[in-house]
Write a structure and sequence with these properties.
Blueprint (H helix, E strand, L loop, with lengths): L1 H6 L5 E6 L2 E4 L5 H23 L6 H18 L8 H8 L2 H14 L1 H4 L15 E2 L5 H10 L15 H14 L13 E2 L13 H6 L4
Antiparallel strand pairs: 1-2, 3-4
Helix pairs in contact: 3-5, 4-8, 5-8, 7-8
The structure holds heme C.
């Protein structure tokens, strides 16, 4: 018994006592504090990187990227589309085409027409009024040739015909959507797009498009 007492550590005792139980004043070691502080600092950096900064990515982004690449692969094997009313209407119903066209739109048209087509320097593409468009095919013409002496650039040499066709269909699909902060309507209100749709796609892409 006396051995035990003499071999007990000589650390100072804390001042409190509960039911006769005393406690040595043994602070947690420095390395433990360092790990604890490290995890706290890490948690802040983690939140900032993944939830605040533009550098973080999510599994959803990765999925979208992979999906888009797959759509582009399928799109490459679609064959030449025809820039006619039926193709535009059909393409609007094809979620794969619309995903590819949206990516093209975001990369090239957002600066002037806004992320959702609400209109900035360029006109609002979501309302029923158009300046250069009377029928759905005219959207394709404006994209090809531009308008207002180049204020709307010509895109004919920038994208393949198929890309411009689904881009026109995408612009047509923006009509009737409700973006935040829409620019005031310009031009004349035109009749709604026709609703009938002529089958032009491959059976495979038709099968996958819901609601058509
Ligand atoms: C440099 C700015 C700019 C960019 C970039 C731009 N546009 Fe435009 N766009 C305009 C302007 C300005 C008009 C209106 C022309 C006019 O007043 O006749 C317009 C008109 C249009 C119209 C006709 C709308 C109407 O009411 O007649 C369509 C369709 C269109 N743009 C599609 C696109 C697409 C698709 C892209 C991307 C590939 C694009 N624009 C990129 C400036 C731009």
């Amino acid at each position: 018994m006396s051995d035990e007492i003499s071999s007990a550590p000589q650390d100072p005792l804390t001042s409190h006592e509960y039911d006769g139980i005393r406690e040595y004043d043994n602070p947690t070691p420095g390395w433990w504090h360092a790990i604890f502080a490290g995890t706290v600092i890490f948690s802040f950096l983690y939140v900032i990187f993944w939830h605040v900064s533009v550098f973080g990515w999510s599994i959803h982004d990765r999925w979208k990227e992979a999906e888009l690449a797959e759509f582009a692969r399928i799109f490459g094997s679609v064959g030449q589309l025809k820039p006619d009313e039926g193709t535009f209407l059909e393409s609007m119903q094809n979620p794969q085409f619309m995903a590819i066209a949206r990516a093209t739109y975001l990369g090239n048209c957002t600066a002037c027409h806004g992320r959702d087509g609400e209109g900035l320097v360029g006109v609002n593409l979501c309302d029923d009024a158009y300046k250069n468009v009377k029928k759905i095919e005219d959207i394709f013409t404006v994209i090809n040739e531009g308008a207002k002496s180049g204020a709307m650039p010509a895109w004919k040499s920038r994208f393949s015909e198929n890309e411009r066709i689904i881009l026109a269909a995408y612009v047509a699909s923006l009509r009737g959507t409700k973006p935040a902060n829409p620019k005031q309507a310009e031009g004349e209100v035109i009749p709604p797009w026709p609703t009938h749709s002529v089958p032009v796609m491959s059976p495979q892409s038709r099968e996958r498009s819901p609601g058509s």
